[in-house]
Design goal:
Shape of chain B: elongated
Family (chain A): Belongs to the eIF-3 subunit C family.
Strand content of chain A: under 5%
Number of helices of chain B: 11
InterPro entries (chain A): EIF3C (IPR027516), EIF3C_N_dom (IPR008905), EIF3CL_C (IPR058999), PCI_dom (IPR000717), WH_DNA-bd_sf (IPR036390)
Number of domains of chain A: 5
Protein name (chain A): Eukaryotic translation initiation factor 3 subunit C
Oligomer: heterodimer
Helix content of chain A: 55-70%
Organism (chain A): Patella caerulea
Subunit structure (chain A): Component of the eukaryotic translation initiation factor 3 (eIF-3) complex.
Strand order of the largest sheet of chain B: 7-6-5-4-2-3-1-8
Amino acid sequence: MSRFFKAGSDSESETESSEDDEIIQQRPSAAPVQSRTFQFSDDEDDSRRIVRSAKDKRFDEMTNIIQQMKNHKQIKDMANVLNDFEALIKAADKAKKVIQEEGVPRFFIRCLFDLEEYANECWEDKEWRKSISKNNSKSFTSLRQKLKKYIREKYEKEVNDYKENPDQGDDDKRDETPAPQDEESEDEVDTSVKAPVKPKLPAPPVIKKQLPKSMDDDDDDDDDIDWDSSDDSVESDIDDEQFDTGKLTAEYFLKKSDSGTSKKEKKRKEPKQMKLEETDEEGDWEEVKGGAPLIMERPKMFGKDQEINVDAVLKKLYEITSARGKKGTDRNEQIELLKELREIAETNNLGLGIDVKLYFNIIGAIFDYNPNTLTSMRNDVWESCLSYLQTLLNILIDHPEVNVGEHIKEDDENLTEAPLYVRGCFLTLVEKMDEEFTKMLQSCDAHSTEYVERLQDERQVCDILEKTLRYLEIKGTTLEISRIYLKRIEHLYYKFDTSCVYTGDNEPKKEGTSEQTMDKLCKFLYTSETPDRLRTRAILCHIYHHALHNRWFQARDLMLMSHLQDNIGHSDIPTQLLYNRTLVQLGLCAFRQGNIRDAHNALVDIQSSNRAKELLAQGLLPNRQNERTPEQEKIEKRRLFPYHMHINLELLECVYLVSAMLLEIPFMAAHEMDVRRRMISKNFHHVMKMSERQTLIGPPESMREHVVAASKSMKTGDWKACKNFIINDKMNAKVWDLFFQPDKVRDMITVKIQEESLRTYLFTYSNVYDTLSLHTLAEMFELDMSVVHRIISKMIINEELMASLAEPTQTVIMHRTEPSRLQSLALQLSDKFLTLVENNERILEVKQGIYPFQNKRDRNDRQPGTSAAFQHHTQGVVEGEGYGPPTSKSVTNNQHWNRRNNKNYSRESRNY
Amino acid sequence: MATRKQRAPVQYVQLDGLVVLKLIKHCQEEGAGGTDLVQGVLLGLVVDNRLEITNCFPFPRHSEDQEDFNEVQYQMEMMRNLRHVNIDHLHVGWYQSTYFGTFINRPLIDSQYNYQDSIEESVVLIYDPLKTTQGFLSVKAYRLTPAMMKFHSENDFTTENITKHGMTFDKMFEEIPVVTKNSHLVNSLLCNLEEKDKEADKFNFLDLATSSMLQKNLRQLMECVDATTMDINKYLNCQRQIMRQQQAKQQYLQKRQQDNAMRAQRGEPPLPEEDLNKLFKPLQSPPRLDCLLYSGQIDNYCQQISSFSTQSLGKLFMAESLQNDGQSN
């Protein structure tokens, strides 16, 4: 590389700045170079389909536009130049992020600079301006303005830099031919473009030689060595030529070399394409059958004159199956071969034994098809698998003389004579099929039609399961029966069967409901000798099924009888997940039945962690503490339940929050004065607190906001508002309509809200009443007199309400023994002082640590004294509030109250 | 120091009626009914053993974002202007309103220290607007005791220093009796007004605003107790740490001694002495001033509560006897 080349290679900028005639002279020479290169790089794009970095992609886009612009500039097509410029700006905008990281690309600045120069030039050329069409001149003026504005706004500094130091760009120029290609591929090229020190120039080929290799590596995972090497040679050829073009020698412009490269390109492209197609066909990343194909003689299964008998077929079968699992075996091919073999066997009437054996092998091969346990089957494979299973199953059922089993050894197989013995376990195949089915459902988007299509196979799967079940009931062992029973159960338990919902009427029991089926299957599993895991799962499914169909008591009793709560932690994770699901379903059932506390207790564990989604295996949550490894994630993904088995999470949360509200609000009202606020539901408090933190509380939108608003109105005893917040169109659509018989649930909720509001009201406002008429209360809360009576009596018995009922007048007489605020404050204060004193004494202990015995005695002496003093103190406050000579009644009340308080304390102290 | 010895310390504070009215007005207008604190400057003179406070002016309220506001400049300006109209312009302290007697805290101590440091006779007037609305004008004058001044000047609030100074919570402030004095003209005006006011017989002194007042006091007392407990806990933890460190130190020293003894037996030179303080950095014990302040505050609350309940009890007895009278009649 000498100076000569630098001078000889006419850079774009030089051309622009030089005289007009020069441009005309030199442009044609520059143009082909450019266009060729770009074609070339385009080709590359098509053939490779590689994943490129964002930077490469963006810069490529920009260079393409710049190239087009250059062409348009030559013919002075201003309209198009303007278009190009706008496109370029857009592209630059898109590449903003990349630019921020990498700095403004040189070629872009150069282009801007050139364009500016070009515009100025054209502007000077008044004659030309007059001559051009109106459209063109309009475009030109607007281009000029836009360009100026753009440069001024964004890249003024860079362009000025470039202006001052254009020779750097000139150096660039020389490299320009390879440059675009470089930019699309690797970072290091950047340096070679930007710092083209002369002696360095021979370096690029080396870089480029490595380049395609690395790309290839990206291209297919199982890097094919054969291809790589050939690629390499071709590529290096090209590179050499390519690099020659950098010299801009005369030969370069000859057409020959041009076409030569492109030809080679094409050659390269073709096999690549083929390969791509192949891999597409496979639908998977797997070993492409490479150089030495193992089964080339596929069309000829047997020699023409070879006698086809059982032995020959078996031999062939072994031949085929022995290739199984080996590297380089085409699994597709294998399946096809086996199918063909079976057909041959069938046409030659080799008997049932062979047929069954071959079926086993085919299905096995199909399951083998995916080397990876994570990917699911393709649809067509799956369908064929199902149909094969069906046929095999039919054969087995139709011909009870065929004995199948894993226990039969290969040597003991009898494929020809009457009691046929074939090795192979149909149950295992069925289980595998079920697994595959789940996997397929997991792999497709739950909201697509594809999912629905797949789900339609559920019927078929169940069909197979049922048939197998019947078959095994006759032929199988207990264990096998248990396994198939469990499979059947697992396909049954989550499905809602309207025919077996307990309605309370004395309807004649229908036959064949899923309840009965479940009952039968599960009871078999409970009684027979089965592994614990199967039994546990069966129980859980059974409970789930009961709960789903509103059979609350059966479900609860079964749950309690099973004692699963105690040892579920020791079981495997899928079973634990099933337990979670069951628990949730149990909670929902309890809610529907109006057992609010049970519902709350069942749901609290799942809901309080805020990870319901994860606990129910309905989706992965981002893990905050530690990122899970890909393997972990894969494992977790495999555990997820398919979408159709999901439990609605919003429903779950709503039910939880509503039950928490019904429990917590009266509780809060009752324990307003307590020193330490205990809470029933932390989650509920959290939700409430979150809403309190908001500066502006609008009308409720989400489910949560509805519940919060309802809770707030319940606090004031406004049951109507509360009900309207919980039960309205929005909530119906979101939550309640998801229940079976939503009206019943809504009625239940309404009644509960009325009752709990009444309780809250009494707790909150009892201190402002002397007496309260039951009638008024009943009217206020639209409840029956008897209900109100019941609730109040209960509260009095539980010592929640200090009052008595006056039967003749139907009124509640308040006793006013609740501690006033002042009293409770005083109590709190005394409590605090106690801790203070204790702490103080501890300081003393530290100080006097040397005499522990003396100190201890000291403390013991002091302790009762202080506590007695405080007791006295509290007593004083309590009685001092009496405002007058204590009547006998108030004394008793005081005593009573004190007792209650003492009880509270003792309870509290137990809690500590 | 010299001046203090020469002049007898201020025995009582003589408040001008004007000051009281201005104070009340300021608090009423800007203190949002007593909940916000207001502050201002007291002007007056020391005469013999009394401090006469004859005028005051409020600190203007300014929000946090008005950084450029210069308080000192404002005060100087104000005093200069007052001087022009021939009003006492000597700075003798400051006043502050309080909410339920919450005033014993760090900022008050600090600023009072600064005042007393520069103007020896200065006092702080604490005005309780809530009590005033109840009918008891409550203006109290406080100043830091000389012991407290000394203690504060050392700026070392460790336990040792406290014991050294014998500081306790009740020795921090001393209250100075306040006398309100009006000029004769004003007195005669008041007499005039009294005569004109015919409807002054409506007493509501039997009003028992007991519960809310007591409740609030109790609440604040509780807060204070909580704070004290926290403080004590902190102190306790620190004590424990120190103990632990001491033990470690002892162990280390013993080991060192043993090693040295062994070495001496073997005839080797003893191990070089290392700086123990580097190995065991002396732990900073938490400052105890806050605890003192909390205690003072608790004391203050307790006094308030007891005085309040005493009054209430008195009222109750009065009410009882009145009631009995009414019944017997």
